[in-house]
Amino acid sequence: MKKIMLIGKTGCGKTTLAQRLLGENPCYQKTQTVSLRGSCILDTPGEYLEQRGMYKALIVTAADTDLILFLQDATDQQCGFSPGMASLFPKPAVGVVTKCDLCPNPQDRAAAIRFLEIAGVSRIFSVGLHAADDDLASLAAFVE
């Protein structure tokens, strides 16, 4: 698996996505510091994105990765990413819309996709973190 870094707001599903990509049972844990999950997934605290002063920590952490995943919760109507934020990183950035299974409104999903497009990601996957779905398998294949 490529070495990836997960970036997103607090509660967007970064830890749960990491657990699912690694084949683990999802178990909620608040990420307090950058955590290595398995041997290839760097899980970052949401506060690193929410507090602009922490962007430097994200940029430095990204240096050791092959791919950055920007996570946007489909049920969150606010974007956590700055326009063009993907350009801060010298690595490819891919978007993941999370919690699609909890979002019955297709307009909210479309808004989440648009937020990621504005952030400048190159490709977008949509996943439901609490249900088996084909997009998770596609994402897992992409990060292999």
Which features would summarize this protein structure in a list?
alpha/beta, six-stranded mixed sheet, 31% helix
List the SSEs and their pairings:
Elements: E1 4-8, H1 14-21, E2 35-37, E3 41-43, H2 47-50, H3 55-62, E4 67-73, E5 93-98, H4 106-119, E6 124-126, H5 134-143
Parallel strand pairs: 1-3, 1-4, 4-5, 5-6
Antiparallel strand pairs: 2-3
What does this structure look like?
The protein has 144 residues and is of the alpha/beta class. 31% of the residues lie in helices and 19% in strands. Strands 2-3-1-4-5-6 form a six-stranded mixed beta sheet, sandwiched between helices. The termini are close together. The model has no long low-confidence stretch (mean pLDDT 90).
The computed structural class is alpha/beta
How would you state the average pLDDT, rounded? 90
> What is the spatial order of strands in the main beta sheet?
2-3-1-4-5-6
> What's the total helix number?
5
Residue share in β-strands: 15-25%
Q: Total strand count, please?
A: 6
Low-confidence stretches: none
Please describe the biggest sheet, giving its number of strands, its sense, and whether it closes into a barrel. Answer: 6 strands, mixed
Order of helices and strands: EHEEHHEEHEH
Helix content: 25-40%
Radius of gyration, in angstroms, nearest whole number: 14 Å
